Prior knowledge:
The complex is a heterodimer.
Chain A: E1 4-7, E2 10-13, E3 19-25, E4 31-37, E5 43-51, E6 54-57, E7 64-66, E8 76-78, E9 87-94, E10 104-105, E11 109-113
Parallel strand pairs in A: 2-11
Antiparallel strand pairs in A: 1-3, 3-8, 4-5, 4-9, 5-6, 7-8, 9-10, 9-11
Chain B: E1 3-6, E2 10-14, E3 19-21, E4 23-26, E5 32-38, E6 44-50, E7 56-58, E8 64-68, E9 73-78, E10 87-94, E11 100-102, E12 106-111
Parallel strand pairs in B: 2-12
Antiparallel strand pairs in B: 1-4, 3-9, 5-6, 5-10, 7-8, 8-9, 10-11, 10-12
Amino acid sequence: DGGITQSPKYLFRKEGQNVTLSCEQNLNHDAMYWYRQDPGQGLRLIYYSQIVNDFQKGDIAEGYSVSREKKESFPLTVTSAQKNPTAFYLCASSIGGTVSNEQFFGPGTRLTVL
Amino acid sequence: AQSVTQLDSQVPVFEEAPVELRCNYSSSVSVYLFWYVQYPNQGLQLLLKYLSGSTLVKGINGFEAEFNKSQTSFHLRKPSVHISDTAEYFCAVSGRDNDMRFGAGTRLTVKP
């Protein structure tokens, strides 16, 4: 079955540590996205990538980094510079850069900083 | 850039009653509009989308939405809800900037 996988489902991190969230898709989509979800705030865009080896900052990129070395993979690193990293993180993909294309979402990773 | 406002953060309704979840958007260019549903601790699933053509859009699970350009609205409706419709619903808009903007979400709770 085609889809998007995110791992792990739950992640705990000590303050001051970097952590990497995995996102893999087998939909052959060109574009991939990372969102952060906090209660009552909807989804906010962290980073997005329209093509391999290229990515752009979203609205809240500070304290995060990404890479896009392969079409199917778009890992997100939450660095120690992110002041309030506890949140639900969602990865998404779409066919291409056309704005009319819907995004398909993974099941999410819940990150808790202890 | 475009933006989305979902007018109700929570909507409680009894089973088999009709429901409307309201969404308004702002944009200076043509837009594409989407409704997504999210069940607890899961990702988002597309309910329906408006790209062009007929302003009444039908989606999955019996939901429909109407695009109203003059009122810049895209309200979601269902004539008779079920307990299983309890979830969070997100309205989203995409436009020239090639990114998608989401509303804050509406929590629909269907009571027996």
